[in-house]
Amino acid sequence: MAGTLKETQLAERIYSRLQDLNCPLVEGLFLQEADSMKDLLCTPTLHRTDILKWICVSCCPSLKGRFSALRSTQTDAVLQEMVCFGHEMMLCEPDDLDLIKGLAPALRQLHFMEQLLALVPDRCPDRAELSVGQVTVGGQELLRELFSASHIAQLTALLKPTCNPWSADLRELLRHKASQSKMGQNKTSFVKPAEDSVAVASALLESTKCVLEDLRKECTFLQSDDMSPSPRLSPCALRLAITDLSQLMLAFSQCFNTEFRGSCQRRPPALSPNSHSFRTVHQLLLTCSQELQALEQLLDTSSTMAMTVKQIETDRRYWGDGHKHTLREYSGSVSLTDGMTQTQGTKQGLQKYRCIMNVLRSFELTGIFTFL
């Protein structure tokens, strides 16, 4: 609802602006409803394209020549010219043909037209537009009239104004001042250089005084502060500090020239040519570290497997005879030579047990468990 209201207000404002600019494409329409104005400005029609073209020409009159060079059937070329103009004015993208054709959202089209109309200069119908030639001719006629014989006396009075008749006392005063000025011309020729030098020196002193005042404001330690308990730094103390600083700088420069300059100018050390040996040693150490990590993992796995086998060997379970036995007890009670029938699962369990025990014995013989 808010978007529709804004579109309606924009359409009314743009239509009123076109009427104020005497756009020939809206003359005789007499639209009263905002929806009709919105349809006129946002519906993709040839009339809308002509209105947009008139707005572009009003903003930039040089576009009129480009549009005239194109045929009436070259609509796409005209639209492309308007797109280029809008992009030059930073109002649209270089490929924004939908905005020019009227296929973009209505609010965006109205904003685009309003921004273009803001660039159109106002036209005053009461003032006739004069060409450059007419302005030149009018200026020449004005100058000819001013320098005519009837106005020469007035121009002379303007260039050399007088205020006659003066009163008697004023004429005497002016005559006395004129005589004094003539008599003082010779004196002035000698006094003027001295006065100039004095003026220059005074200006220099004033500028120096201003600079010193600025420096004094920046140096807070030179300002008197009755509230601060710290003692005031006097100019003598400042002079002593500057002297000490200059002596320290002089001592440092001498020490640098005698002690440090040789070290600073020394050539950088050369790199050792045996870098490949260090690289080889590093690779060997890295390989050894990886092997030790593998052995550690093997020991962890072996210990875990031994604990698992020990748990299987010591836990009491049912082995098919209805009674709980440990694996060691059950393997001792069962003999492969007796005539009792053994199940296939029992045989497989015994075989796995013997294999695991053999592996554990081999580990114990090799001494892996005692490696760490």
Treating each run of at least 4 consecutive H or I residues as one helix, how many helices?
14
As a whole number of angstroms, the C-alpha radius of gyration is: 55 Å
The best one-word shape is: flat
Order of helices and strands: HHHHHHHHHHHHEEHH
How are strands sequenced across the largest beta sheet? Answer: 1-2
| β-strand number | 2
Mean of pLDDT: 76
Structural category is mainly alpha
Contiguous uncertain segments of 5+ residues: 124-128, 336-341, 367-372
Query: What percent strand?
Result: under 5%
- Report how far the terminal alpha carbons are from each other: 82 Å
Helix content: 55-70%
The major β-sheet equals: 2 strands, antiparallel
Write structural notes for this entry.
The protein is mainly alpha-helical. Helix content is 69%, strand content 1%. A hairpin with a 5-residue loop joins strand 1 (317-318) and strand 2. Among the domains are: 2-118, no CATH class; 200-259, no CATH class; 286-366. It is built from 14 helices and two strands; from the N terminus they run ααααααααααααββαα. A two-stranded antiparallel ribbon has the order 1-2. The radius of gyration is 55 Å and the shape is flat. It has helices spanning 2-20, 34-42, 46-59, 63-69, 75-88, 97-101, 106-118, 132-146, 149-159, 168-218, 235-264, 275-314, 327-333, 344-366; strands at residues 317-318, 324-325.
